[in-house]
Specification:
Elements: E1 13-16, E2 23-25, H1 54-76, E3 79-82, E4 102-107, H2 110-123, E5 128-141, E6 144-156, H3 160-172
Parallel strand pairs: 3-5
Antiparallel strand pairs: 1-2, 4-6, 5-6
Helix pairs in contact: 1-2
The chain binds zinc ion (ZN) (2 copies).
Length: about 170
């Protein structure tokens, strides 16, 4: 191991950057936000470390995290249509139903299951998910009972304007 922190030259080297192996002192170790990238379908290995040097953090983690937060915001605005839904779905002009199907497993609750599906759609610039199905299963986990959730959906481009119009009309008829 190098005798000095490669960031600040402190001799108190205690750690390594898990991405590039540079020697670091404890003050120079940077950690990603807890739960960062959690909704990604598969977290790339370069983003799954816990300890980074400044260089790797700025170069890799920070831009990816900004993109992640951006997708997360989009995911929260994805229009969710369930499989049981019978009313018309206002697909964007010139688009059809996608053959893509997303699946997620081992989610802690219903909301995260849907958000994970929506995240995948947002990542690919879709603003809707169709045929959304979620289900849960009881499992024993270290002696107590808990539920694990899974779900599936297909992405779609929704015409937001028509959807709003549809919702308004529905409210007027209520
Ligand atoms: Zn240092
Ligand atoms: Zn590094």
């Amino acid at each position: 191991m190098n005798s000095a922190c490669e960031s600040c030259r402190s001799p108190e080297v205690t750690e390594n950057c898990e991405a590039c192996q540079k020697a670091l002192c404890s003050d120079c170790v940077l950690n990603p936000e807890p739960g960062a990238f959690q909704l990604m379908p598969k977290i790339p290995s370069k983003l799954s470390h816990q300890k980074y040097c400044r260089f790797c953090f700025d170069e890799t983690v920070q831009p990816a995290y900004e993109k992640y937060l951006e997708n997360l915001e989009k995911a929260k605005n994805v229009n969710v249509f369930y499989k049981t839904q019978r009313k018309g779905i206002p697909l964007a002009k010139g688009t059809g139903r996608s053959k893509l199907k997303f699946t997620v497993e081992a989610c802690p609750d219903r909301d995260e299951t849907i958000l994970r599906l929506a995240y995948q759609a947002a990542e690919m610039d879709y603003n809707g998910i169709l045929d959304t199905e979620v289900s849960s299963e009881k499992v024993r986990h270290f002696g107590y009972q808990t539920s694990v959730w899974k779900g599936s959906a297909s992405p779609a481009h929704i015409n937001d304007y028509l959807l709003r119009l549809q919702d308004q009309q529905e409210q007027e008829f209520r």
